[in-house]
């Protein structure tokens, strides 16, 4: 089992694990952000470059550092590898550059966008981006289009992460959804405006990290932070029926899949659950959902990363030169004070 | 224990004859009352006469329109989430084709209500607004006989296109620069957008 050290924390992981997944096994603040990688979708990752890290030591056999930051979602760990994420100023600087590039063509219409408040790009820009853009030219423009009668595509907001394409490829049979054109004019589209009528096509809304694919039945109904999420389930003939209901007052404003702490869907849900079952009587309610990472209230936790970096620096200074800072597994997990 | 040296021992001695008559005390009180009649009155006869207030006084809110007369508010909800008194509620609507002159962006506030009984006039809504749509003005909120009248809807809050409310004193240079920057989509009027095509 290869042993990898990420920001001074060592862990042994199975052969073939990527740096990103090794960091997720450690957990806490050292996990690199990811906009395109999705653990539930095969071959996802490698497009957005937000998860870049610095490999300061390649392996025990070949200790040379890698010449430039690497995408942690696509780089497999080697025995003795040493990785720097938040302890490296170079990585944070490079990541801020990546965020600036992602935002070049993004319209920043957050006050209008339904995703605002649970948008990964918003979180990323707050935590890792710069205050202002230096871009002065005209942004890409597209007309908004309907993909089927329940999903709306705002191509202007898209960051081309390909997650929805992977969903269409891997989850639905008879793919009618993909990327057309190349480079600057690349866009998500359906095959000559074909409607998507597959049972699981609605999952493209949940995997979209930005507000490019949104639920038309929820369009402009409420801002996310005024709705209250509860976990619920029903006996569904198509899927597991385990969902999250977003209440506005006494009404179910929308239904989504349950997401884990990395914003990834736990179990895919079908379109019937998502779009057609919007009454409390359709569901068995389990209880309120714990909200933390994507809450608009806890949006700005960049300060804590800085505080953490400072504390690691302090520990390094207090120890004799050359000693590795040996924080145990899970030491940076806020739920684990030891 | 004595916390200060200002405390006085209470003495309950018998009143003297003069004190028992109460006359001197009543006379003294009447004289104080009399002297107040000749003083300058501290009250003003509102609304005919208005007291001078600061130019950045925080009074009744206004929902601004842009230069072309379209409503600036997009119902983003940031004023409501910033409001410490939870006085603001809104419902969003989607702009239809042909309403571009009425509403600046594709989403607008179909219902926008401020409960003036709850509002503490702190001005946080104004600070939170990303569209420079809501401002507090130097107008005083009129009193009313029922609570219902104190919930101000769009009819009372949106400025009429022909009677603009002047908020220039509240707009700092940073705000004005932000508003004039046509790179921001929300600072372009409908005609700007048509011209850029």
Low-pLDDT runs of chain B: none
* Oligomer state of the chains in this structure: heterodimer
The third-level CATH topology of the largest domain in chain A is: Alpha-Beta Plaits
Task: Give the fraction of residues assigned to helices of chain A.
Answer: 10-25%
Fraction of helical residues of chain B: 10-25%
* Number of DSSP helical runs of chain A: 7
Mean pLDDT of chain A: 83
Span of the ends, CA to CA of chain B: 83 Å
Rg from Cα of chain B: 27 Å
Can you tell me the residue ranges of chain A where pLDDT is under 50 for at least 5 consecutive residues?
297-304, 326-338
Class based on secondary structure composition and strand pairing of chain B: alpha+beta
How does CATH name the architecture of the largest domain in chain A?
A: 2-Layer Sandwich
Radius of gyration of chain A: 21 Å
Q: Biggest interface and which pair forms it?
A: A-B, 17 and 19 residues
Provide structural commentary.
The complex is a heterodimer of chains A (338) and B (197). Chain A has a 5-stranded mixed sheet with strand order 2-1-5-3-4, with helices on both faces. Chain A has a 4-stranded antiparallel sheet with strand order 13-12-11-14. Chain A has a 3-stranded antiparallel sheet with strand order 6-7-10. Chain A contains 7 helices and 14 strands. The longest helix of chain A has 17 residues. Chain A has 338 residues and is an alpha+beta fold. Chain B is an alpha+beta fold. Chain B has a domain of 136 residues: Alpha-Beta Plaits. In chain B, 25% of the residues lie in helices and 12% in strands. Chain B has 7 helices and 5 strands; from the N terminus they run ααβαββαββααα. In chain B, the strands form 2 sheets. A 3-stranded antiparallel sheet of chain B has the order 2-3-5. A two-stranded antiparallel ribbon of chain B has the order 1-4. The longest helix of chain B is centred in the N-terminal third of the chain and has 15 residues. Chain B is elongated. The relative contact order of chain B is 0.16. Chains A and B meet through loops of A and helix 3 and strand 2 of B.
